[in-house]
Amino acid sequence: MWRRASRLFALSMLLAATPLGSVSAGPDKVTIPLFQNPNTITTAGSIATIRTIRFLTTDDYPPFNFIDQEGRLGGFNIALARAVCLEIKARCTMQALAWENLQDALDRGQGDAIIAGIAVSDKSVRRLAFTEPYLRIPARFFAARGFAEAPSPGWPDRISVGVQAGTAHEAFLKAFFPKAQLMTFADQSALHAAVRSGAATLGFSDGVGIAFWFQSGDAAGCCDFVGGPYLNADYFGPGVSIAMPLDRPDLKEVLDEALRRLTRKGTFSEIFLRSFPVSFF
Q1: Are 132 and 148 part of one and the same domain?
Q2: Per-residue confidence at 126, pLDDT binned at 50, 70, 90?
Q3: Number of H helices, E strands in the chain
Q4: Do 106 and 145 fall within a single domain?
Q5: Residue 150 has pLDDT above 70, yes or no
Q6: Whether the predicted pLDDT of 179 surpasses 90
Q7: In terms of domains, do 88 and 61 share one?
């Protein structure tokens, strides 16, 4: 009985999970999550000592890091890194490497920080320091337009929910929506097709991927999000941070302060809107 009550309580917390704040912008009220607390009091005395930051990233993970149509490095992470450097009046350089080479390059002193979505984990924190998260990737339900039933752990068996097999999203559904009729798919394309055709009543996946699918010709305006975002760190990670060597507490302090300033000034919101015209929150 205690375990069941505990699980239901945890689910209620998940349903209510929100960023530290959010703002809405534009005629369609795009929700912009704010995970940095702009009111945190700090003594960023090291800012004046950081004159150059050499960022390492990748160029193959749109919309976060990619080569644009003019052959330039762009994306959400790139714009954010440049804004950080402008905010603290530091010279900023960007170098794109293969994902598997990023941490070794940092260890060799080839860069000062990595902005590429390296996961914060028990293993990575033994090797790297991280800023406070500036973004989290929520899980979302989505369905054909017109579906209005709110997500519930008591969904009857008739509600079929599609999910990619072997993912954290599948594990989450099994833990918190045990009565849902799960339909597993080999990849996201098959999941999208099932929801679009009505073979699955709903789908469950990461909000970023679904938001960009909504804008594609393949989706053709078929579907929309249902319910709110799910931000359980145990399943979906603690968020997106900038990584740096463990022996650079000065750089961590400066980057955290810069991110807070960008949040306070609204610069983070501007970058978010340019990168994510369809909000995944």
Answers
A1: no
A2: very high
A3: 9, 15
A4: no
A5: yes
A6: no
A7: yes
Q: What's the mean pLDDT in 96-102?
A: 98
259 in a structural domain = yes
Range(s) of the domain holding residue 226: 139-236
Specify the CATH number for the domain of residue 71. 3.40.190.10
Axis-axis angle for helices 207-214, 188-197 (nearest 10)? 60
> Would the pLDDT of 26 be above 50?
no
Q: Closest Cα partner for 161 from 114, 193, 121, 194?
A: 194
Beta bridge partners of 56: 95, 114
Q: Do 257 and 197 belong together in one domain?
A: no
Q: Whose structure tokens read 């989450």?
A: 172
Burial (0-12, 13-18, 19+ Cβ within 10 Å), 153: middle
Q: What is the pTM of this model?
A: 0.82
Whether the CB-CB separation of 66 and 60 falls below 8 Å is answered with: yes
How does the average pLDDT of the chain come out, rounded? 86
Q: What percent of the chain has pLDDT over 90?
A: 72
Cα 241 to Cα 17: distance, rounded to the nearest angstrom: 19
- Token output for 139: 């899980």
